[in-house]
Structures are given as structure tokens and as C-alpha cells.
## 1
Amino acid sequence: MSKTYQNIKGTFDILPEASTSDGTNVAGSASWQFVEAAIRDVMALYNVEEIRTPIFEETELIARGVGQLTDIVSKEMFAFERGDTNYVLRPEITAPVMRAYLQHHLDQRGGVQKLFYVGPCFRAERPQKGRYRQFHQFGCEVIGTDDARADVEVIAMMLAVYEKLHISRTELRINTLGDAPSRAKHKEALKTYFESYRNDLTETSRKRLDTNPLRILDTKEESERTLLVDAPRLIDFIDDESRRDFDEVKSLLADLGISYREDHFLVRGLDYYTRTAFELESPDLGAQSALAGGGRYDLLAQELGSKHPVPAVGFAAGMERLFLALQAHGVPFPEAQGIDVFMVALGDEAVRWTFNQSQQLRRDGFRVGLDLKGRSMKAQMREANRQRAPFAVIVGNDELGSGVAQLKDMVTGAQSEIAVSNLSDTIRTLKAAEASVD
Ligand code: AMP
């Protein structure tokens, strides 16, 4: 028996219709198009342009851009080698966008660059609900300004996507990470604090104590979480300018009527993150509750080789989690657009005529279905129904000779004779009549 193949665990085929794979509901391609169109519409309102970068990059770029000590880089990269170069399937898209910005000197276009993306990302994580090995992110990077309004615009456009899709149960949490020196001071204080509890820490946290004590704050261990209560808080180390900036962000959010919760435990493990950090959560997602996250990363460009600082702020959101939230909200998707007409043919001559005529109708802008298998009339009518054709044009050899065809209304079943000479006009009239009823 020959082997049959399956998609790789933690990845999905997006089929024309919704499907289930490994117990996960996967939206159909029409739903993906619908959501992507909503994202594009929102981005257009905020005057954000699209950028598309390759799905693989040099490993070094991602290691620098995402951080050598993160789980993503240390454990979850899909990496491969070719010649002397190490490559990695991108685990996120911010570092690639910044690479492209610097490489192509996009600053020379003038002003602030506002770029959005939608595309696949790859992380070798243990697959579970809301956590996959190939998933899709959409996001936006606003590059070239450190104005608090940019932070708030990024948050506003992120929220606008969920609002447009009627996902209302979300919670925005925000924090400020301050500047690099204030974070260094906080890190030292954390080290000293956790050092005194070294024996109470798990092995993972002990390792983190030496490499990156901030990550201990992410612990899920109940025994360790109690230690967090009295741990030094970053907010107590924040520099005055960052404080003023954070106040400005909060007051602008209030102006726009955006509600948020301040969360001083919301941190990022990487040194190039500065000031604003935020996360959007949904109570409907279970353990993987983050819909999206983001913040300011003023020091990333220099990490990637820029001689000058390039202030930037952005968000990244998971598409699959957005679909989970949509499902939980019971938001219906519009059905895929059906065809305008199905051409049914009986007899060799009619089959040939219908084939040519279909091409003409498509040139005239109509969506046309027809049989490509030489099936019976009954089977062709079934196919017309499956494709949700509102009308079928039925042509036989004899009818063709007399210049007429049968037009069947697939909803009412009513049948009438039409001339074959001006099919486009007939279908145009029918479509117009249908549109006026809708
Ligand atoms: P991150 O780059 O880890 O901040 O991720 C940004 C967003 O991408 C998260 O808020 C999730 O919505 C989504 N995401 C991250 N990792 C995964 C994954 N493995 N599977 C599905 N979605 C993910």
C-alpha cells in the first residue's frame, strides 16, 4: 500500500470551506479573505501601507532582532543551513520589517513610515489550542517618530480591526518600560531580590536569574508567583521623561475613549524595548489569551546595525486567535460569493458551444460555472446547485440549431426560453433584477 501524506502537526490547510483538523476549527478561505479585507480597510483608514518581506531570513537577524535569550530564538526556530549561511523561517515580522526599512533607506521617502503586514510565521512550539507551528500574524510598524501619538495610533488601529469584526470582549493592558538605564537598575534590583530566594526557585527560574531575571516575572508556578508580590517593580525605577511620556499616552487614550488597565507586571525580556508596552487579551481564548501585543522599540534599529537611533512602535496580532475570538462571539461570516450562472450542455455540439460561450461571458465580467467532465444533465444540475448558481442556462444540440436555450431559475424552478444570440445582455438584466430585489 502506498503512503498517504498529511500536513505537518501544528499547521493547517485552509480549504474553500471551514474544516476541522486535530480538533481545531479552521476557517475557510473565503472567511480568511473577509478578515484580511477588514484588516486592509482599517489600515487604509490610518494611511498605513503594506510591506511584504520574505518568509525566511538570516538566522543572525532574527537572533538579534528577537533576542538570543528568548524561547523563540533558543528553542523554537525552524532553522536550516545552505552553504555557509544559516536561515530561519521567520518567527515574527517586526525584525524583518526593520531590516527592510534600513536596507532600502525607507526614511528617505520622507516623514514617518507606517507599514502593515499579513503573513505566516513559524515557531516550533508544542501545538495546542491557539498555539501552532505555522500561524499568521498581521501587524503594523510606525517607524521614525517617538511621539506618544504614534503609540496611541498603533493601539487605536489594532483595536479598530477587532471592532470592525464585532469582537467586543477584549481587554487592553498597558505599561511603560522606561529607558535602558532605568531598566538596567530594575534588573539589578530584581537580581538581588530573587537571589535571596534562590533556593525557592525552580531550575528554569534559577537559570533566568543568571541570564535574564525579568523573565522570572513570567512564571506560571504558583509558589513563585507569591514571590512576585514584593518583587521590585519596574514602575518605581522609571525615568522622569518616560513617566511624562506614559502620562501623555494615557491621556491620549482617554481622549479617544479607549479603556485600558495599567499592568506594571507587563514586561518585555529584551533590551531594545522602550517605554510603551501593551497587550490585548480576550477572555474567550483559554490559556492562550493574547490576541495581540506590541509597544515601542526605539533601540532595535541600532541592534540591527543602524548608526542612528530610529524610534519605532508597532503591534503584532495572531490571525488564528482572532478567528477563535470570532467563533466565541458567534460572528457569522458572509458566504463566499457564488457564481452568476451555470452553463448546462447536452450533446457534443452544445458542449463545445457552451465552452466557448462561457469564455465570452467571463470576458464580459460574469462568473460562470460549467461541467468539465461530460456528466449527465442531472449531474450538471446538481453541480449548478452546489455552486449556488441563481440561474442555469441549458443548451442542447437541437435547441442550439433553433437559436434558443432554456433558462432555469434555480430558486423558483421556473423555466423559460431565451435567445442564445445575446446571452450577456440576458444575464446582465437578470443580475440587475436580482440586485434590485436584494
Ligand atoms: P508575539 O510575537 O509572541 O508577541 O505574538 C504576537 C501574537 O501572535 C500573539 O498575541 C498571538 O496572537 C500570536 N501568536 C504568537 N505565537 C503564536 C502561535 N504559536 N500560534 C498562534 N498564534 C501565535
Note: The longest helix spans residues 29-45.
## 2
Amino acid sequence: MGPTDLFVSPLAWGMWRFRGDDLAAATALVETALDVGVNLLDTADIYGPDNGEPFGAAEALLGRVLARAPALRGAMVLATKGGIEMGVPYNSSADYLISACEASLRRLGVERIDLYQIHRPDSLAHPAEVAGALERLRAGGKIAEVGVSNHTSAQVAALAAHLPFKLAAIQPEFSALAIEPLYDGVLDQAMEMDLGVMAWSPLAGGRLVGDSHDGRAPAVRAALDGLARTHGASRAVIAYAWIMAHPARPIPIIGSQNPARIREAADAMAIGLSRTEWYGVLTAARGTPLP
Ligand code: NAP
């Protein structure tokens, strides 16, 4: 990944929707991802409340899975996030980040997080303070690498300027329905700085596979369906392949909590889209012909 020693798969699996008390089912999801070659697993301390569960619940569930099957830890690159505080909403002060990371370690039951990400930028935290906290966590062996999510390219540059080591990754929303990173400099900067790119909500939270009629969704689904027929793949697989075709090599974070769909997603690693096919989807996403 980027400038690091982390060896990551071209697809990741995400745990925003990872929930419940069924430890066998939770373990099966993790095992399915690893089994199909998806070794980068993304969670966050804030994953829980959106599922009607407490802050920290998704990390705690993964911690229970790892306690039950400790060998899984060594098979994964474990990414989590901190910096969202319930009711605040953002806090990247040094004291908070350090305590949030330590709490994540306790819930996960691991000694070190492979990729620790600032979940959202905190306008009230100077990047030097954020960098200082991340440096302390890294020097203490609590995290291996650092990433940021939902940061503008200027925010990435400001933090990188204060970090005494290389930033590893960014995590923007990017899909055929969220194409801003193509135009706002985020993907260009990732290539300039050799950052890993993790694309969140690669199916637009399900809108690319559902039947929502809002915005560009129907047109984009139709464009993806045309390619799905050509390539003999599902629409979801084409949607992942479209993201992966970009030269920044974005890693779609599979959001599904369905083992069969996680398994199917891995088919995207074998799909290559032509320039004409890729630009056809972009044209549908823009809603206007390319100049
Ligand atoms: P997504 O892939 O865009 O959407 C997943 C949703 O689509 C699930 O509810 C899934 O349901 C549904 N779905 C329906 N048909 C599907 C199919 N054929 N294949 C796959 N999914 C299908 O991803 P997401 O869950 O919104 O986000 C993915 C990950 O991105 C999260 O887990 C998290 O790690 C990360 N994320 C990060 C941020 C951030 O701010 N950094 C924000 C949001 C998400 P089933 O589970 O029933 O398959």
C-alpha cells in the first residue's frame, strides 16, 4: 500500500454494517473475505450507532472474532479509524486521538493497528497537533501506518507536511455515483504522493444495485448493465472494476455483509475495462457528454 510495507489486496472488506451477536456468522464473514483473497479489513470506532448498537460495537465484534480465531489476525491488514466523537462531532486533538486509538486496541484485542485513519478532518485541530499524536502512537508501536478519510487534497498536504513519516493512504467516497475525486484533485494527489486509495461506498451504499430513481442512479445502472452483459459479470462486479481501473488503483471497500456477495466481488480482480467502456460509465455518471 502506497509507500509502506503493507501488502494489500486490490479489494478491501468494510465493517460499517458489521453487527449482531452471532459470532459464528461474524467469523464466517471475516473468513470469506480472507478466503477470496481480500486481506485489507476496514472498520472504525464509530461503527455501531448507525446499526442501533453502541459506539465501538463493530470493533468489539471483530475483537470477539479474533479472540475466537486468533490465527485470523496474522492473515489480515487491519485498518480502523478514530476522530469522530459522539455529539461533538469531530475531535482530532492529541489527547483524544491517543485515547481513542488505545480504546480501539482494547476493543479489537490486538497489540497494533496496521493502518490508523483520521476518520474526518477536525477544523479545530492544527495538523501539527494531529501529526504529533500520530507520531506518538507510531513510536509507541500502537499503529504501523497512518491514513486519512474524507480529507480534501489541501488537508492531506497540510497533515503530510507535519508528519515525520510518509502518509500511507486516503479514503474518499468514490464510485460511479460519487465521481468528485476524479475532479477535485484527490486522486491526482494520491498518484503524486504515492498514497494508497481506499474507496468507500463503492456501490453508493447500495444505490448502484438497488432501484432508487434519484439523480444519475438509473442511467449509471444502465451503463453498468451493458458492461455486465459484455463481460458476463454482475453489475456490482463491474462497479468495482470501474473504480479499480483508475491509475491511482483505488481499492473498493466491499460493504456487503453477505458471504456470497463478498465472494462474488472478488471476480472484479479479473475484469479489465476498455477506455471506451470506462468513459461510457463516466458519461452516464456526469449526465452530459464529455467535451
Ligand atoms: P456499498 O458496497 O456501497 O454498499 C453496501 C450495501 O449494498 C449493503 O447494504 C449491501 O447489502 C448492499 N448490496 C445490495 N446488493 C449488493 C450486491 N449485489 N453486492 C454488494 N452489496 C450489495 O458499501 P458501504 O457499506 O456503503 O461502504 C463500504 C465500506 O466503506 C464500509 O463498510 C466502511 O468500511 C467504508 N465507509 C467509510 C466511510 C468513511 O467515512 N470513511 C463512510 C462509509 C463507508 P448486503 O450486506 O445485504 O449485501
Note: The chain has eleven helices and eight strands.
